[in-house]
Amino acid sequence: MQWESSPHVIKDEVKAVLEFINYVYEIFGFKYELELSTRPEKYLGEIETWSKAEQQLTEALNEFGKPWKINEGDGAFYGPKIDIGVFDALKRKFQCATLQLDFQLPIRFKLAYSAKDEAKIERPVMIHRAILGSVERMFAILLEHYSGKWPLWLSPRQTIVCSVSSGSVEYAKQVLATLHEAGFHVDIDVSDRTIQKKVREAQVAQFNYILVVGAQEAETGNVCVRVRDNADLATMSVDGLITRFREEIGAFR
């Protein structure tokens, strides 16, 4: 049984994973670096198999079209790998995504499949892949990358509704319910503090949008929209705001 009889399959699968990684990282706005890690001093398997595997990764990287470099001797003991280093806002590099060829576990698990002609049994190759890596590390990188100012689609604090006075509390609750039903993360501040304090606290908490509602907004069915960078955006209808949110989130998809 052999795996190298269909090397183009390996190359195509590797390229597909690289394209997926690129798709995800472009959404986050990450810049990244590709490294091909080759056979270490202590390894399993035959050198010929390693050489063929490294060749497949090399061809996949070349066809992927992004710059890459070789990291000699840093492969896993079971096969070569491609590591992806992500740069944060301070230009520090973190190893996140990885793609590894494993031709040892299929042997140990005695995995096999029939070739197209069904007369030949071949050994598959296992591909280990991680797109984000450690969730905790990725969150830390994202915090640095966005400087705490999460984009709307990723933000745990998308918007907050602040009432101007007790007379607009019920309308503030209606706005909250409408936005929540539309699928957004919404908080509310109907305390008896001044509207200036409410808005300031919402800005410090990094809410993407701050919605101020008073008697006039309750009468017209609108909201006064502010963004976290201390800018008044506009007065708009709740439906118009929902459309704006969806368009902003859709821009990242």
Automatic annotation (TrEMBL):
Kindly list any coiled-coil regions of this protein.
none
Any one GO CC term of this protein is: chloroplast
Protein location: Cytoplasm
Q: Which residues form the Anticodon-binding domain?
A: 160-247
- Statement: the UniProt record of this protein carries the keyword Lipid metabolism: no
The record places domain Aminoacyl-tRNA synthetase class II (G/ P/ S/T) at 7-146
Which Gene3D superfamilies does its entry note?
A: Anticodon-binding domain, Bira Bifunctional Protein, Domain 2
Alphabetical GO biological process terms:
threonyl-tRNA aminoacylation
Q: Does the keyword Cytoplasm apply?
A: yes
Name a Pfam family for this protein: tRNA-synt_2b
- Chief subcellular site? cytoplasm
Q: Which GO terms describe its molecular function?
A: ATP binding; threonine-tRNA ligase activity
Q: Which InterPro entries has this protein been placed in? A: aa-tRNA-synt_IIb (IPR002314), aa-tRNA-synth_II/BPL/LPL (IPR045864), Anticodon-bd (IPR004154), Anticodon-bd_dom_sf (IPR036621), Thr-tRNA-ligase_IIa (IPR002320), ThrRS_anticodon (IPR047246)
- Keywords noted in UniProt: Cytoplasm, Protein biosynthesis
Per the record, the similarity remark reads: Belongs to the class-II aminoacyl-tRNA synthetase family.
Protein name, please?
Answer: Threonyl-tRNA synthetase
